Amino acid sequence: MGELEQAVLETLWDLDGTDAERPGASGRAVHDRLQGRDGRDLAYTTVMTVLDRLARKDVVVRERDGRAFRYAPRLTRAAMTAEVMHEALEGTRDDREQALVSFVGEASAEDLAALRRALDDLA
Amino acid sequence: MPTPVVLGVLAVLLAGPLPWVLSRWIGLRRTPAAAMLLWQSAALAAVLAALGAGLSLVTAHLWQAPVGPADVVVAGLAGAVTVVVLARLLLSGHRTGTSLRRMRRLHRERVDLVARVDGGVSVLDHDVPVAYCVPGMSRSRIVVSRSTLTRLAPAELVAVLEHERSHLRSRHDLVLEAFTVLHLAFPRWVASASARREVEVLVEVLADRAACRTGGRRDLVSALVTLAGSPAPAGSLGSAGSSLAARVEVLRDTRTHPWQSAAVSVLAAAILALPTLLVVLPWLDRLV
Hints:
By secondary structure, chain A is α+β, with helices and mostly antiparallel strands. Chain A has 5 helices and 4 strands. Chain A has helices at residues 2-15, 27-34, 44-56, 77-91, 109-122; strands at 25-26, 60-65, 68-73, 101-102. The N and C termini of chain A lie far apart (48 Å). Chain B has one domain. Helices cover 73% and strands 6% of the residues of chain B. In chain B, strand 3 (131-134) and strand 4 form a beta hairpin. Chains A and B meet through helix 1, helix 4, strand 4 and helix 5 of A and helix 4, strand 3, helix 6, helix 7 and helix 8 of B.
């Protein structure tokens, strides 16, 4: 399911901006774009389920458009990556509950000097 | 001395002075696996002793006839304190567990949406080098940024990934979580902050060791230099007890310390056995 969510979101990123008048794309457009790609046989309802799920996760914004909905990514790909990066740097700080475990945290000048000395010794 | 008093004194010793001493014993980090065992058994023993002291006080006053009003009051107070200690632990455990799992799930979902997966590693398209893992039962992730891939030599990257894999394999997050729970349940009077900090260092040291076993020590250190030298968010730079300096110190030490390792392990077992026996023995006595 995660893979499909990514494919749907990527399609939305591709389609967003193709219509200068209106942001986002309809579920039908997303389905048409995804259908048959990589030999994928995808039901329209599956795409709609995924879009709704993405909307619930606040990744996609849903707007009424006549009798159907239009879906637009809340953030550009770069902005969403930046958001994840920010969360990663915040979540690994050791002054709070650590949700994520970082390879190396913040380093002081002394830390770096000690590291370089160790590297020289190992050479 | 009566059991409740012994257990009470033991609880106080294990909660305060012992962590204080252990966190100042720098050489303990040279045997990280045994040290981890010792910290865990000391924490568990402290909780056992505290709960055991309360419970044995209750039984000592109520199980021997005649029971006077004073006995009831003492038993009631001891029981209440025991219940409070237990409730704080359970509540803190519940809160920490749900909040950690929620944060991890939300983060993992977003990583999965934007990252490209390459050899089981999620790669974020970003200029700031990062390497971290999102722990979890079956849905753990190792995440790096594109910048990490370009800055590190292949052997260095292998070391970093092995470090992260070791965190996930050994479920270091659960150990950290347990000590966070203790710290949040008893932030004061108990040296839980220093215990938490030391366990954090040990977890990194253990993952470093695992990375060195498969790759080169030098690759790991140079990866640390590259990734630690990156711009970090301003603020808590050079915070007290930098874990990085401690890691480097242990990495430089190439000797093995079998005697220290054995002694520390025995100490860990003894510390845990002490309150267990004190709690269990009086009951056995009654059964026989």
